[in-house]
Specification:
The complex is a heterodimer.
Chain A: H1 2-15, H2 17-54, E1 57-61, H3 67-78, E2 83-89, H4 91-101, H5 106-114, E3 123-128, H6 134-144, E4 149-152, H7 154-199, H8 202-210, H9 215-256, H10 261-267, H11 269-295
Antiparallel strand pairs in A: 1-3, 1-4, 2-3
Helix pairs in contact in A: 1-2, 1-9, 2-7, 2-9, 2-11, 7-11, 9-10, 9-11
Chain B: E1 2-10, E2 16-25, E3 30-34, H1 41-48, E4 56-61, E5 64-65, H2 74-80, E6 81-85, H3 96-106, H4 111-124, H5 140-152, E7 158-162, H6 170-185, E8 189-194, H7 197-203, E9 206-211, E10 214-219
Helix pairs in contact in B: 3-4, 3-5, 4-5, 5-6
Classes of the chains: A alpha+beta, B alpha/beta.
Chain lengths: 298, 226
């Protein structure tokens, strides 16, 4: 029985090759949209992550503060829940970095040499989990009234950080919303295409029932065909993605700042294929199930 | 074998198709249902196949009221009744052999049975050479013979034919009727709905005449009289 159903599915797939190909083509387009959404989501997350990591605040310590107290301050800050990463830059390190940065500038180098002492104070770089948390870190530092703190650069950057935080959140939400919408449209298009394919077979469904076929026996080949459409469409989509990404990758490297989409694709190809396959087969089978139900009533 | 018990059928547009029809068909009988278009012949057949439900009354196949069957039980009844249609109703995407084989597959027959029976039935209707032709490659008469082969391949108790000659020229029509007669001789009950006077007069078997949903005449060796 099972063998017969599979056989009939393949035969009807082959005999209605143009309907089958048209259906697969539409499913490929839909799956391509789904795949692009997954990739662009990954890219978006990576970009946002990159930007987020670049945001930090620096606490400048007065040059004359004793190192022991600075360490205490550092440990206090490190205990805050919001703090993800903390970097202590000692006075010597700060000087070395400063010299390195201004190596080309003879005037500055000479001026530094004129000084007896290191004019720079130590600094603590703080990175939080989310940009919105800098506000509370800054407030904690202000409230603590630590005498050795020269200044915290949060207040200067406050506007930029809060705007950035807003942009990051919005782009995440909008991205998810747009993805859902597009995925929904892709699903509807694929569903309707399969429905049309089955619509052309509605008379045959009626005849099959009249000659005594059970509903299940009538329906099963359509479900198998639906799954077959999904399988072929997801494989095709995967093969289209590869050259597409190879073409896109150099452009991506230019604009996206170091995110290699092609590499990301290769690293996750198996998972990616499973998602496309799952979506494709699910859409194929569910659409066939719904579409045949109409003609099997009564 | 078949018993229509005071059957009424009213369609949603209030057209009365059957108006209190009672009659029975005995095993191995050849019954012709005659009457003008709209007299209720097709409705009687659709009720037997449970394609339509009666507004009142019952239709029995042996002791079974066919309209009490669930959707899952229906296929078993339909496999006991072979059906021939005016518009052939072949599966367009399957060739002659596969159309006949499908009825056997649907009935759950084994591959061995199918491979043995389908060629035999096809040669009975004279289509052994057209087995691999698709419906669009067959003439009207040939299509109807595929329809008959499909109707009889499961060795049903009853063959019902709804205007089987309606779309055929007289020669092909007569061939089909002779084939139905042969099936009847081999022990199958045949119920034939038609409005072809020439055919009815030539058969000389039982004729049930319908008019406006009522039986107006039922004769053992009837003629077409309206």
């Amino acid at each position: 029985m099972f063998y017969r159903i599979i056989k009939h599915s393949f035969i009807s797939f082959w005999r209605n090759i143009w309907v089958s190909l048209a259906t697969i083509l539409v499913m490929v387009l839909s799956l391509f949209i789904v795949g692009s959404l997954i990739l662009s989501h990954a890219i978006l997350v990576a970009i946002l992550q990159g930007i987020q990591e670049k945001v930090d605040i620096t606490i400048y310590i007065k040059p004359d503060a004793p190192e022991q107290e600075i360490f205490e301050l550092r440990d206090t800050i490190a205990r805050l829940d919001e703090v993800k990463k903390l970097e202590y830059i000692s006075r010597d390190q700060a000087l070395a970095q400063f010299q390195e940065r201004h190596r080309q500038n003879a005037l500055i180098v000479r001026s530094l040499e004129e000084l007896d002492d290191n004019p720079l104070g130590a600094a603590i770089n703080v990175t939080s989990f989310h940009p919105s948390q800098y506000e509370s870190i800054a407030r904690f530092l202000e409230a603590g009234n630590f005498s050795m703190i020269d200044k915290v650069n949060y207040r200067q950057n406050e506007k930029i950080i809060s705007r950035l935080s807003f942009i990051l959140d919005t782009s995440r939400n909008v991205g998810a919303g747009v993805s859902l919408l597009l995925a929904g449209i892709a699903f509807l298009v694929a569903f309707n295409t399969i429905r049309m394919a089955i619509f052309t077979a509605r008379e045959e469904i009626g005849i099959m029932r009249l000659v005594g076929a059970s509903n299940w026996y009538v329906r099963a080949p359509f479900l198998v065909s639906g799954a077959l459409y999904g399988l072929i469409a997801s494989l095709t989509t995967l093969f289209i993605f590869w050259p597409f990404l190879l073409w896109l990758a150099p452009k991506g490297r230019q604009y996206l700042g170091g995110i290699d989409v092609a590499q990301y694709f290769m690293a996750n190809i198996f998972q990616f294929f499973l998602i496309l396959l799952g979506v494709g087969v699910l859409v194929g089978v569910v659409s066939s199930l719904i579409a045949t139900r109409r003609y099997l009533k009564g | 074998m078949i018993y229509y018990d005071n059957v009424f059928k009213k369609y949603p547009n209030n057209a009365v198709a059957l108006d209190g029809v009672t009659f029975s068909v005995e095993p191995n009988e050849f019954v012709s249902l005659v009457g003008k278009s709209g007299a209720g012949k097709s409705t009687l057949i659709k009720l037997l196949l449970a394609e339509e439900k009666p507004s009142a009354g019952h239709v029995y196949l042996e002791s079974l009221d066919v309209h009490t069957l669930s959707r899952d039980e229906l296929p078993f009844i339909r496999r006991r009744i072979g059906t021939v249609f005016q518009d052939f109703r072949l599966l367009a995407s399957k060739n002659a052999y596969e159309n006949v084989a499908f009825a056997m597959e649907a009935a759950g027959r084994t591959n061995e049975e199918i491979e043995a029976d389908v060629p035999q039935v096809l040669s009975l209707v004279g289509l052994q050479d057209q087995a691999h032709h698709f419906p669009h490659q067959l003439s009207g008469g040939e299509k109807q013979r595929v329809g008959i082969a499909r109707a009889i391949v499961n060795r049903p108790d009853i063959v019902v034919a709804d205007e089987p000659t309606g779309n055929l020229d007289p020669q092909n029509a007569w061939d089909i009727i002779k084939l139905l007669g042969k099936i009847n001789e081999l022990g199958t009950t045949v119920m034939l709905a038609t409005h072809d006077k020439m055919i009815i007069d030539a058969i000389g078997r039982r004729v049930v005449t319908l008019e406006n949903g009522k039986i107006i005449r039922d004769e053992k060796r009837g003629k077409y009289v309206l």
